[in-house]
């Protein structure tokens, strides 16, 4: 697959210069940049990309960047069909996706999450598979209370679903969730409202929610604690790049924004959203 060079990860677009305080400033007067970008796709990436867009727009007031969710599948489809300038894809690009151009801006993982009040502390990979296949249906079967397990899954086309199904060898008719919901916050909300539920979601999203006091807990996978720290050190088994994609090699405003998203000037935002800078 043809991607931008690694060096591009630390190149700020030509329309930006560095000010004394280390923050990028808008192009000099007389060279004002204007334009509009539509970015669609991964709900995991959307909050981060929205925060980056807000900073970029503050530096360049003539620019309007709209960020919409819908899943990694939507991001890819919109870019391929010319409906969006940039797609957000929360996974690696596959062999059948070589025609698009991708640039990873961070790393994340997929965690198994349960309610904080659930006494279960860990599930084996086989137990997770059996729960989502409908073979284990009560928490007492895995050391919990006598309560029916409510399985929550993401809808089709989500990057987290693809990674989850691949890792746990679940697909098609094998995966039998009781609730299918869209964006990460929807799934987390449903779990909070039902202490017998289980879901899978972005580690970054779940960590942020837990730190904010949402009553959830992340379970280990493969014996490894689900955390951004273990994504960073390469130990967590379900990890993924957070990738921005375009139909062609980007130019102009699209190139400027994509390279800004991959620059060291947004590392603080990537970390603030509990993701890992791509080259860390």
Q: Could you describe the 3D structure shown?
A:
The structure is a single chain. The longest helix has 14 residues, at 46-59. A hairpin with a 5-residue loop joins strand 1 and strand 2 (24-25). The strands form two sheets. Strands 3, 4, 5, 6, 7, 8, 9, 10, 11 and 12 form a ten-stranded mixed sheet that branches. This protein has a two-stranded antiparallel ribbon with strand order 1-2. The chain is α/β, with parallel strands linked by helices and 280 residues long. Mean pLDDT is 87; it is low at 1-31. Helix content is 28%, strand content 23%. It contains nine helices and twelve strands. The radius of gyration is 20 Å and the shape is elongated.
Index terms:
280 residues, alpha/beta, ten-stranded mixed β-sheet, two-stranded antiparallel ribbon, disordered N terminus
